[in-house]
Amino acid sequence: MLKNTKSSYGVVAILLHWLMAVMVIGLFGLGLYMVELTYYDSWYKGSLDLHKSVGITLVALLIFRFAWRALGRQPEPVAGSSKALNNVAHTVHIFLYLLLSVIVISGYLISTADGRAIEVFTLFSIPAIDFSVANQADIAGKVHYYVACSLIGLVVLHALGALKHHFIDKDKTLVRMIKPQKDD
């Protein structure tokens, strides 16, 4: 079951969800570690290169996820869930996508502020745009940090909501994001 159905997420949506979740949490942890490094630390350049490369990979997955979502169907809310909570969940998802978009744009603006391209796993480069503003790296860096912290807060809220559905409501909200379910 690759595609979503009316009651379940398909394998593609599930893999995208969990792969991106691991990447976002990993990038956040790596980002917190990186800001503590000095220029002379042995892993300073390596951590930056890894963060940028994984970040560009996240951009590609985010674009694919937007396309997959736009072209496919979305499962209906779980039976018995309240309309108000469904609206909250929908709003949280919109903010997750919005924050992810701002993070990748600000990350790009940090990385290309000096006019250099971004090397992606030494396989190819993403060119810098011929545009910059005064203190671009600093401004984009602050945006990147605060939006990343906001994203992680929202991810925690999202995870707590999924756990509430599973352990308190005892519905299939979390289960259908772990493995595809047959339509009822």
From TrEMBL:
<dbReference type="Pfam" id="PF01292">
    <property type="entry name" value="Ni_hydr_CYTB"/>
</dbReference>
<feature type="transmembrane region" description="Helical">
    <location>
        <begin position="92"/>
        <end position="110"/>
    </location>
</feature>
<keyword id="KW-0249">Electron transport</keyword>
<dbReference type="InterPro" id="IPR052168">
    <property type="entry name" value="Cytochrome_b561_oxidase"/>
</dbReference>
<protein>
    <submittedName>
        <fullName>Cytochrome b</fullName>
    </submittedName>
</protein>
<feature type="domain" description="Cytochrome b561 bacterial/Ni-hydrogenase">
    <location>
        <begin position="9"/>
        <end position="179"/>
    </location>
</feature>
<keyword id="KW-0408">Iron</keyword>
<keyword id="KW-0812">Transmembrane</keyword>
<keyword id="KW-1003">Cell membrane</keyword>
<keyword id="KW-0813">Transport</keyword>
<keyword id="KW-1133">Transmembrane helix</keyword>
<keyword id="KW-0472">Membrane</keyword>
<feature type="transmembrane region" description="Helical">
    <location>
        <begin position="143"/>
        <end position="163"/>
    </location>
</feature>
<keyword id="KW-0349">Heme</keyword>
<comment type="similarity">
    <text>Belongs to the cytochrome b561 family.</text>
</comment>
<feature type="transmembrane region" description="Helical">
    <location>
        <begin position="12"/>
        <end position="34"/>
    </location>
</feature>
<feature type="transmembrane region" description="Helical">
    <location>
        <begin position="54"/>
        <end position="71"/>
    </location>
</feature>
<dbReference type="InterPro" id="IPR016174">
    <property type="entry name" value="Di-haem_cyt_TM"/>
</dbReference>
<dbReference type="InterPro" id="IPR011577">
    <property type="entry name" value="Cyt_b561_bac/Ni-Hgenase"/>
</dbReference>
<keyword id="KW-0479">Metal-binding</keyword>
